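Complex record, two chains
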Amino acid sequence: MLDKDGIAKRIAKEIKDGYYVNLGIGIPTLVANYIPAGMDVVLQSENGLLGMGPFPYEGEEDPDFINAGKQTITMLPGAAIFDSAMSFGMIRAKKVNLTILGAMEVSENGDIASWKIPGKMVKGMGGAMDLVASAENIIVAMQHVNKAGESKLLTRCKLPLTGINCVKKIVTELAVLDVLPEGGFKLLERAPGVTIEQIKNATEGKLIIEGEVPEMVI
Amino acid sequence: MNKTVSSADEAIRDIRDGMTLMLGGFGMSGLPENCIAALVRKGVKDLTCISNNAGVDDFGIGLMLKQRQVKKMISSYVGENAEFERQLLSGELEVELIPQGTLATRCMAAGYGMPAIFTPAGIGTEVAVGKEVRNFNGKDYLMELAFEAHFAIVKAWKGDTMGNLIYRGTSRNFNAVMAMAGNVTIAEVEELVEPGELDPNFIHTPGIYVHRIFQGKDYEKRIEQRTVRKKV
């Protein structure tokens, strides 16, 4: 079973040289720590920055330099700053190659719910609806089950949707799965020490298992 | 073309109850702190505020929420504000949550003189309810209308008396978009200079969009999530 850093590490392997990548809040943010050295990747922050660097050294925080999670950050050489309209312009125009974000639920046809629990939590969708509606390459990083022990990989989402038919890949503490265009979660890899049975039990939606499912290498 | 006013209070003098305001900033970054303080002093009520976030309990728009000056918020993300949540759940505050890109682009459309835009954001979700859907090249898009706001209130780093603005870092965010979108745009800046002192090659908001400008003071520039790394 993976911890949050393990999930981030596994997702980092999906990043390719030359990619522009948008990282969501939570586990996706951790992915930045595991991008292989020497790989040419530019991180986009939707509040208006390309070329996001690591957190600043203590004492060098600057309130004018934050990421979409409102964390203080630095910029790397070659960074560019722009306004919020242009930021979502480049997202809508599919200039960003990979979007990694969290979710509360994903359905077997690639719908995602991530912004609202009616009657309990209403924080808003932020940029997530724009990202999932436009990005062609979306990976969801999340826990396989929620705090109540219920599967988050469902036949159909129960919570209000963020977007439809958009999630392509999911990485959880248990597994890596593709969401197939014709519907269904195809099991690609098991997390170290995790059995197929555990993944079956934690997946409510249609799980597709073909042949031997390798243990992931991270 | 001198657009200078003496203070935040003078800049907002004709903002009245029931008006619609755009307020720049993302999280705590690039908030028009001086104008928000002046609006709290003035006590105008029943405002509709278009702003990406709603501040925290004791900073930003949170200060106006605390005084019950806001009737409706149009935002994309409103977490981290207990008073906001309380007013929302009790029904005292009306809230319209819309995707962040839609929010920015509806401001942009106003500044570019376009009545509406088409975006895929929100298709198939509750955001799409009641909105016109058009299909272009096999993909569905929502028609979203340009915002109309009586006032846009933004914060810039530097400005000149003609209203030309330059922002610093990621505090450009919604400020540069909203600056173009108000019927009247008020800009508060950290440093106000004479025409000719700013390089025209690096102006972010041309002064034609700005109606009033003043040099703000006592900027707190709060940090919402202080994240650092240790020197090794």
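Note: Residues 4-12 of chain A form the longest helix (9 residues).
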